[in-house]
Amino acid sequence: MTIKKPLVVKQPEIGGLIRNLRLLTGLTQEQFAAYLGVTYTTINRWENGRSKPSPMAMEKIEQKLQDLGKQGQDLKQKYFGS
């Protein structure tokens, strides 16, 4: 069994990741919030760098990146270097 290391993003960069991922998927803040099980205001705070996602939300974000294939991998590389 392989233990998966969680993705860690610095606070100033998380907003860019969330915004780029959301735009890449064509989702509004409200739609992306529903997908992650959070509120619109939470997405807004993440995108504006006022807070960061919980570990559980980061798992869903990572899954969405994986679901996007090459585009998701490119975005992951940009923010995580992996």
Give short descriptive properties of this protein.
5 helices, mainly alpha
Question: How would you characterize the overall build of this protein?
Answer:
The protein is mostly helical. It has one domain: 434 Repressor (Amino-terminal Domain), CATH 1.10.260. It is built from five helices and no strands. It has helices at 11-25, 29-36, 40-47, 55-67, 70-80. The chain is globular and about 30 Å long. The model has no long low-confidence stretch (mean pLDDT 87).
Compact overview of the structure:
With 82 residues, the chain is an all-alpha fold. The chain is built from five helices and no strands.
Give me the secondary-structure topology.
Blueprint: H1 11-25, H2 29-36, H3 40-47, H4 55-67, H5 70-80
Helix pairs in contact: 1-3, 1-5, 2-3, 4-5
Mean pLDDT: 87
Structural domain tally:
1
Provide the CATH architecture. Orthogonal Bundle
Radius of gyration over all CA atoms, rounded: 12 Å
Unreliable sequence segments: none
Structural class: mainly alpha
Q: What is the helical fraction, as a range of percent?
A: 55-70%
Strand content: under 5%
CATH superfamily: lambda repressor-like DNA-binding domains
- CATH topology value: 434 Repressor (Amino-terminal Domain)
Query: Span from first to last CA?
Result: 20 Å
Number of strands: 0
